């Protein structure tokens, strides 16, 4: 495997802390979401993961669309990341990726969405580790 790029972000303070990238592009105060006893209006790990996965996923969808001759330039991926309790001391994530590709039907969208999910690096990283549903909308 050839390493092409490495992102570096330093986190301090956990869910009620701060993250900063070494290039200064990301510099965010982090808070638990209100549903977990925190405050609204701040970044949290699930929001960042959803945004990162959605962006990466659309890159994979672009490759699939190019391969199959389908314009996916206006496609959207709405990523839902859920923080779930497994037991009193154990938690796990789950995800749904809602994919919309204007101009094609739901069946075609699902086929392309599934192919992108097979190739997306974030999807590969989570495969077999969390429950993921890819849904054409």
- The H/E string reads EEEHEEHHE
Mean pLDDT: 97
Q: Which strands sit side by side, in order, in the main sheet?
A: 1-2-3
- Structural domain tally: 2
Number of helices: 3
Question: Architecture of the largest domain, CATH level 2?
Answer: 2-Layer Sandwich
Compute the CA-based radius of gyration.
Answer: 17 Å
The largest sheet is:
3 strands, antiparallel
Through-space gap between termini: 35 Å
Percentage of residues assigned to helices: 25-40%
Count all strands and give the number: 6
The poorly predicted ranges are none
CATH superfamily of the largest domain: K homology (KH) domain
**What is the beta-strand fraction?**
25-35%
The coarse overall form would be: globular
Q: If you had to describe this structure to a student in words, what would you say it looks like?
A:
- The chain has 137 residues and is of the alpha+beta class.
- The chain has two domains: 1-43, Single Sheet (N-terminal domain of TfIIb); 45-136, K homology (KH) domain (GMP Synthetase, Chain A, domain 3).
- Helices cover 32% and strands 29% of the residues.
- It contains three helices and six strands.
- The protein has helices spanning 45-68, 106-119, 121-126; strands at 9-12, 18-21, 27-29, 76-87, 90-100, 131-136.
- The strands form two sheets. It has a three-stranded antiparallel sheet with strand order 1-2-3, with no helix packed on it.
- Strand 1 (9-12) and strand 2 (18-21) form a beta hairpin.
- Helix 1 (45-68) crosses helix 2.
- It is globular and about 45 Å long.
- The termini are far apart.
């Amino acid at each position: 495997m050839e390493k092409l790029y490495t992102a570096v972000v330093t986190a301090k303070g956990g869910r009620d802390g701060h993250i900063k990238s070494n290039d200064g592009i990301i510099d965010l105060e982090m808070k638990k979401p209100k549903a977990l006893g925190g405050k609204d209006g701040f970044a949290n790990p699930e929001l960042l993961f959803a945004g990162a996965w959605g962006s990466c996923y659309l890159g994979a969808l672009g490759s699939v669309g190019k391969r199959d001759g389908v314009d996916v330039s206006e496609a959207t991926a709405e990523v839902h990341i859920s923080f779930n309790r497994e037991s009193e001391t154990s938690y796990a994530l789950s995800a749904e990726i809602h994919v919309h590709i204007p101009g094609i039907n739901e069946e075609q969208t699902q086929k392309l969405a599934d192919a992108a999910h097979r190739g997306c690096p974030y999807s590969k990283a989570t495969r077999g580790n969390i429950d993921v549903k890819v849904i054409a909308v």
